[in-house]
Amino acid sequence: MTTLRGTWRAVTSTALEMDGDRVRILDQRALPDDERWIDATDPAVMEQCIRTLAVRGAPLIGVAAAMCLGLLARSGCSAGHFRDVAARLRAARPTAVNLMAAVDRLTGALVGDDLGPLPAVAMDVFDDDVDRCEAMATLGAALVQDGEGLITHCNAGGLATAGVGTALGVVIRAWELGKRVHVFVDETRPLLQGGRLTAWELRRAGVPHTLITDSMAALVLRDGRARRVFVGADRIARNGDFANKVGTYSLAVAAAHHGASFHPVAPFTTVDLACVDGAGIPIEERDGAEVRGASGAFGSVRWCPDASPVFNPSFDVTPVSLVTSMVTDRGVFTREALRDGALVRFG
Ligand code: MRU
C-alpha cells in the first residue's frame, strides 16, 4: 500500500485548509456566529493570527506555522530569509511549546541552504498531529464510564489540533463509542474558548452538554454532576506539572477536593523535557483589555475603567500532585508513573 504521509498535498482540518499553494485558517475570534476564513499564507499574517488567537490551541499553532513555513520553503526564498521568518513565528506565543517544537523540526532539517526537504517535514508535522490525536482519543475514551458527567476547560478539540483534538477528542470519541456522557463546559474567562468554541464543537458532534461559568465548576463536582475532568495542555514539564489555560489549576484543586478524576490529555509534542518542573514553564501575559471587557462577533463591551491595572496570565500551572493520570499518544501515565520519570522514559 502506498502512503501519502509526509507527501506535499492538500490537507484540511476543522480550522485549517492548505490546498498546496495557500493556507487558510478559520478565524476562531469570530466563532460561534461567523465562520470566516483568513488567507494566512503570508507569514506576517500568520504571525498576527497566532498572536491574536485567530488560530489557537497548542498543537494547531505548531501545525499552522509548519504549513506556512512549508509554503515559504517552496517559494524559492533564501535560507537566511527562511530562518528569520521561522524565528518570528516561533516567538509568536511563548507558552505553547508545540509551536517551538514544530518550527524547530523545520529549521533542524535545513542542511546548508537547501530548503528542498522542508515541505515534506511540514507535512509530517500535520500528519503526526492527526495520528497522535487518534491515539489519545482511543486511550482516553477507555477511561470514561457509561453515564458519567465530565468537565472540560477551554477548547482542546478539532479546532485546536489538526486531528480530532486532545481532551475534547477523548470526550467525543467516548460518545461515539456509545458511552452516554454529559459534558459541563467551562466558559473559560477571559476569552471564552469554552463557551464560544467547545460548545460549538459539541453541538456539531451532537454530544449532550451544559455551559457553566468557571466559578460554577466546584459545585458541579461537589454535587456529583461531574466525576471526571479532561483538559488540554500547552507545556508539560518532565515531572508531569503542566501549563494549560488559566483556570485549569483551580479546576484541578476542586476536582481533588471532591474526589473526582483529573486527566490532562496531550501529545508528546507538548512535553518539554528541558523544564524540570512547572516553575520553569514561561507563562504568557496578555493585554489587560481582555479582562476589562470582552469583544467578538457580538461587538465589544467594557465594564472596568481603562485605568484599572489588570493581571492577565493566559495560562496557569497545575502540579502533578493533582493529576489522576495523564493521557498521551504513547500511553496513559498515573501520577506515580509521572513522578517516576515516565515522560523521560517515553519521550
Ligand atoms: O490561548 P489558547 O486558546 O491557545 O489556549 C489553549 C489551551 O489552553 C488548550 O487547552 C491547549 O492549547 C491544548 S489544545 C489541544
Can you put this structure into words, describing what you see?
Helix 2 (58-74) packs antiparallel against helix 5. A hairpin with a 4-residue loop joins strand 9 (235-237) and strand 10 (242-245). The chain has a five-stranded parallel beta sheet with strand order 7-6-5-8-11, with helices on both faces. It contains twelve helices and 17 strands. It has two domains: 11-131, translation initiation factor eif-2b, domain 1 (Four Helix Bundle (Hemerythrin (Met), subunit A), Up-down Bundle), CATH 1.20.120; 143-346, Rossmann fold (3-Layer(aba) Sandwich), CATH 3.40.50. The longest helix has 24 residues, at 118-141. It has 347 residues and is α/β, with parallel strands linked by helices. The structure holds 5-S-methyl-1-O-phosphono-5-thio-D-ribulose. 5-S-methyl-1-O-phosphono-5-thio-D-ribulose (MRU) binds next to helix 2 and strand 10.
Walk me through the topology.
Layout: E1 11-13, E2 16-18, E3 23-26, E4 37-39, H1 43-51, H2 58-74, H3 79-90, H4 97-108, H5 118-141, E5 149-152, H6 167-176, E6 182-186, H7 193-205, E7 209-212, H8 217-222, E8 228-231, E9 235-237, E10 242-245, H9 248-257, E11 261-264, E12 271-272, H10 289-292, E13 293-296, E14 299-302, E15 315-318, E16 325-328, E17 331-334, H11 335-339, H12 342-346
Parallel strand pairs: 5-6, 5-8, 6-7, 8-11, 9-12
Antiparallel strand pairs: 1-2, 2-3, 3-4, 9-10, 10-15, 13-14, 16-17
Helix pairs in contact: 1-2, 2-3, 2-4, 2-5, 3-4, 4-5, 5-6
Bound molecules: 5-S-methyl-1-O-phosphono-5-thio-D-ribulose (MRU).
